[in-house]
Amino acid sequence: MILLALETATDQCSAALYCDGAVHARSLHAPRRQAEILLPLFDELLAEAGVARSGIDGIAFGRGPGAFTGVRLAVSVAQGLALALDRPVLPVSTLAALALAAPREAATILAVLDARMGEVYAGAFRRSGEDALELIGEESVGFAEAVVLPQAASWFGVGSGWGAYATALRARLGITPLSGVDAAAQPEAAAVACLAAPLFAASGGMPGAQALPVYLRDKVALTRAERGMG
Fold this sequence. Notes:
The protein is an alpha/beta fold and 230 residues long. The protein has helices at 34-49, 68-85, 94-99, 160-164, 166-173, 189-203; strands at residues 2-7, 12-19, 22-29, 58-62, 89-92, 108-116, 119-129, 132-143, 155-158, 178-182.
């Protein structure tokens, strides 16, 4: 199985090529430049692996949540490639890709991205295999001090939200132990590829026209007062 994967929901621009278990990847910090460098990254990966575009079986993409422009870019590029190559796509949660950055010994992971305006995107995950995660509850957007936490023996925190709102998130955990934090972790295309591979093998993906972004936040112009924070 050969999959192209991309993740652009943050300032990071990453691309990966999954070839029967081997992963070739590129990742660059490229605020506002993802659109110009993403396709060249794909070409580099294909050349490195000796794979023609016609040899790709599908396209996996980080479907959000994250920066609106970045999430829209991922969806549009995935749809464009799917149309050009006549291949299916497979959306993967950006928060799940972030959670996969946690150490393998971390059983329950709280992935948190800084959503700006004092809010975070958050998702709680349970590791169910080497490259497999199970979402516990629902992904959400809201204030760090109000993140919904399922019950767990302990948590490992990953993502920029832990850098921006560490105090509020630690307070939200209460007495539940925090086994560690990696605030520098980013959602990467390599993780998108690894998460997508078993799903693609099981389902075959979906038509590109059905690829949809997940923003979570419907309105971006509300103040904290309007959101009830006073």
